Amino acid sequence: MNEYILIGASILLLMSVLVSKISDRLGIPALLLFLILGMLAGSDGPGGIYFDDPALAQFVGVVALVLILFSGGLDTEWNRVRPVIKEGLILSTLGVFITALVVGLFASVLLGFSLVEGLLLGSIVSSTDAAAVFSVLRSKGISLKGQLKPLLELESGSNDPMAIFLTVGLIQLITQPDLSPVNLIGLFVLQMLVGAVLGYGMGRVMLFLVNRLKLGYEGLYPVLTLSLVFLTFGLTDAIGGSGFLAVYLAGIVLGHHDCIHKRSLLRFHDGLAWLMQIAMFLTLGLLVFPSRLVPIIGIGLLIAGCLMFVARPVSIFVGLLSSALNWREKTFMSWVGLRGAVPIILATFPLLARIPQAELIFNVIFFIVLTSVLLQGTSIPLIARWLRVDAPAISKRLYPIEYTPMGGLKSELKELPVPSNSHMAGKAIVELGLPADFLVILIARDN
Fold this sequence. Notes:
Strand content: under 5%
Strand order of the largest sheet: 1-2
Number of strands: 2
Structural class: mainly alpha
Oligomer: single chain
Shape: globular
Number of helices: 18
Largest sheet: 2 strands, antiparallel
Number of domains: 1
CATH architecture: Up-down Bundle
Radius of gyration: 23 Å
Order of helices and strands: HHHHHHHEHHHHHHHHHHHE
């Protein structure tokens, strides 16, 4: 019996890898195809796999999200993000709150929900997924001008904790009617502070251990960082902090500093993040019953329209009121607020809490995510060109050389492109007047 499970899982993984290739060619976010693949494999599809376990789906989603956030933090270039730190934090807090409020009020009126139930739906769908945006742009050979890319990266990496807090807090208000909303404000501040402090602290611990332990095998370093990631999340969550914020910040701290085998660690965690994305989307796709989405198509389209054309633009233009971004950049930011896996994961929380409207909320959220990814995701290159915020994508070649600083040495490895109009072009190395301790390791010419 176990071998059939392995065969089925391996086939789904293999198909997901092949589907990602199609995604790059067509410019469609891979997460959409992963979800569709999961739905086809589910009980309503030709695969016929019956899966109706929200608890397991939530567990897979949380584990995947922890690893994805850490990988995102590890890959974040702090020097590029630092100039937009204020705008990013505003969007990840005030922006999320405004989105949840606008969508929640609209859903309350449309669905006949109570105010708290409507706000719960709005909170679940309030976080964004920038990875899908960049994958589409990369497949079309497009980049973004100015500070748009680092701002989108920072917003999507840091707005999940706010959405999670609002979702959990509103569920508590529904299940515990005597609880005062004022109590949630202090809890939010505590969660963010504890998450930020422990995230930074554990990031420094990771850096110290990676550089000082001197393990005998290179393959043990990813095992070390993986164990520390889960320790960071578990420890922070256990003492009342935001574990998701902590792992994201720990990733930023480790990624910002030089450490042993850094490139191999980046490759490992990037591959692991892809595996977790596939597993998460397949699981969430299996969890939904497509036949139950048909009756709520009209409702789903109306709420998705409110999210894309009202809530997101309002949150952007209000949140970035004092920003130096021009109207074109703000309009583009308004359109690229794609919803990803986090809303679907959060939609399992009401199911486990046995809230009366939980199943309807889950199906509506799933439909909104599909609509957002399909409509917004496929139109991103066109909107970027129309608003003139696009720029040619510069593909950076990574050469097969990795330098590991040992024994406190301050040396570092740099890749320096030499343009045709550079004063170095056409000269021999000896004519460049380089410092005595400058070592040329590799020259790449014409591929």
